[in-house]
From TrEMBL:
PBP domain: residues covered: 56-347
Keyword Mitochondrion among UniProt keywords: no
Signal peptide location: 1-26
Pfam families cross-referenced by the UniProt entry: PBP_like_2 (PF12849)
SUPFAM superfamilies in UniProt: Periplasmic binding protein-like II
InterPro entries per record: ABC_phos-bd_PstS (IPR005673), PBP_domain (IPR024370), Phosphate-bind_PstS (IPR050962)
Family membership noted in the UniProt record: Belongs to the PstS family.
Top-rank taxon, per record: Bacteria
Keyword Signal found: yes
Keywords, alphabetical: Phosphate transport, Signal, Transport
Lineage: Bacteria, Bacillati, Actinomycetota, Actinomycetes, Kitasatosporales
Protein's UniProt name: Phosphate-binding protein
Amino acid sequence: MLTRKSGLRGLAFGAIAVSSALVLTACGTDNNSGGSSPSGGASNAAATGSIKCGGKGQLLASGSTAQKNAMDQWSKNFMQACSGVQINYKGTGSGAGVTEFLQGSTAFAGSDSPLKSEQISQSKSVCKGGQAIDLPMVGGPISVIYNLPGVNNLVLDAPTLAKIFNSQIVKWDDPAIKKLNPGVNLPSTSIQPFHRTEDSGTTDNFTKYLKAAAPSDWPYSGGQAWQAKGGQSAQGSAGVTSQVKQTAGAIGYTELSYATANNVPTVKLNTGASAPVAITPDNASKAIADAKIVGTNGDLALKLNYSTKAEGAWPIVLVTNEIVCSKGNKPDTLAATKAFLSYLASDSAQKTLSSQSYAPLPSEIDSKVQDAIASLS
């Protein structure tokens, strides 16, 4: 069981017990096709025992596919304990989720990118008397996955990744890749890079890493929409994972939970540390530990350090936020929204993340999230 420390630095140590094996039972209504969802039979008795129910009816939400695996399990736990509430979370991607929320179509949205100032301003027409706020809920590493038969240990760095995803390096035996992998028999196979079709917080965080760590090789402003030329696209995290798994020579980016569930190889990164860094929840936590709260007026948005060179720190990370109105939530769903989000931020729910390749919130941030949820009106 994970021991949760206080403070942002505590996340680096609090996730040591995170296992790479997924024990998730997927049960949501999302039709995010194109890949397998993690499944398993973990007991949820402890997770459901402390749930405080509230409200009734259907609670609609959508957004991040990065947290979809966790949200499926949480929804199942909550509905088992609270029979009067039906949770319907659709993994449409962060961009679509925020759009639906700002249109007033959902009770909350999941986004792997903090709200922009113009989105907060726009939200005031939906959040009567308040505004939309970011509530950090799920921390997790973004993996770089690949399909290169015969190559089981691949090292890349930010400049090489930037050139691959910008169609400047097109063969696996390119000299830049060979230099990073001495002694590895790299084939002349064409590289098939896959990115997300829809606006995505995973894309936003992945390209923020490229922009921060390889600014001269990634000439794009970044954001949730893919901007580079070339490559192929797939819908959602599951879609990218599926396409990479079935395409020889492919490379893509997706959350570690999807890579683990589908048994897809992951790249190690040369970050400038003394040794290449493997992707693990603990290594991602070492990078997330540098995050700072930068939101104002109740917004708890975090700023991540994508260019860290700390020993063992995996720099391609994201934190998924639940986006909700600080005030002006719809009266018919307010009670259920508060009850469900309160459960997500609870110790019992956060501890279930450790078995899903996600990182639980550090106590310092979690307590602020819980206070914010309690104040929703």
